[in-house]
Amino acid sequence: MTGKDNETIGFYTGNAMAYTSRGQDPDRPHLETFLTRLQEGASILELGCGGGQDSEYMLAAGFDVHPTDGTPEIAKAAEARLGIPVRTLLFEDIEETALYDGVWANACLLHVPRPALPGIIGRIHAALKPGGVFYASFKAGEAEGRDMFGRYYNYPSRAWLEHAYGQFDWSGVEIEARQGSGYDNLPTDWLHVTATKP
């Protein structure tokens, strides 16, 4: 089962300029909590970096950030903003082993088809060093579906995510529910997941 949805990738390809130039601020509250769990200068893989605002914040804080995105046009826009290479990377192509102290996946794994998500979580688990920290956020729900732009969302519940993460060895998995919004500006229930590798 592939970890990508062609209709979703097509949306980001066709709207790369609008999506990356909308002046989005970094997700500071969750970023700051994530970064306090890491050593100074820690190596961080960012998945689905979008316009690069979160990587920019982490770089300014002195971390060794490796930004990636699954859409070449968006990766190129982030690279222009950040001034460092931004790799085009699909989640199912993560192949590193024990390389990163942290993995930051803000609002991107929510597009992975449900059957593929546990395997992607496993790849991220393998890419983390012992003691590594993995953050991801999801739009909450009970059944997968598409939004008004045709983008696929896995819309997991807390219990569904607990089961998906529970297939791998973590020293802790914390799930926080919060209200927020997204690109569609609609009120949204979010689940923020932080998992730590033993």
Query: In terms of per-residue confidence, which ranges show pLDDT below 50 for 5 or more consecutive residues?
Result: none
Q: Strand-residue fraction? A: 25-35%
Structural class: alpha/beta
Second CATH tier, the architecture: 3-Layer(aba) Sandwich
Q: Give the overall average pLDDT.
A: 91
What keywords describe this structure?
alpha/beta; 7 helices; Rossmann fold; two-stranded antiparallel sheet; 31% helix; 7-stranded mixed β-sheet; 9 strands; 26% strand; 198 residues
Task: Describe this entry's structure for a reader.
The structure is a single chain. This protein has 198 residues and is an alpha/beta fold. The chain has one domain: Rossmann fold, CATH 3.40.50. The chain is built from 7 helices and 9 strands, in the order αααβαβαββαβββαββ. The strands form 2 sheets. The protein has a 7-stranded mixed beta sheet, with helices on both faces. A two-stranded antiparallel sheet has the order 6-7. A hairpin with a 5-residue loop joins strand 6 and strand 7. The relative contact order is 0.16.
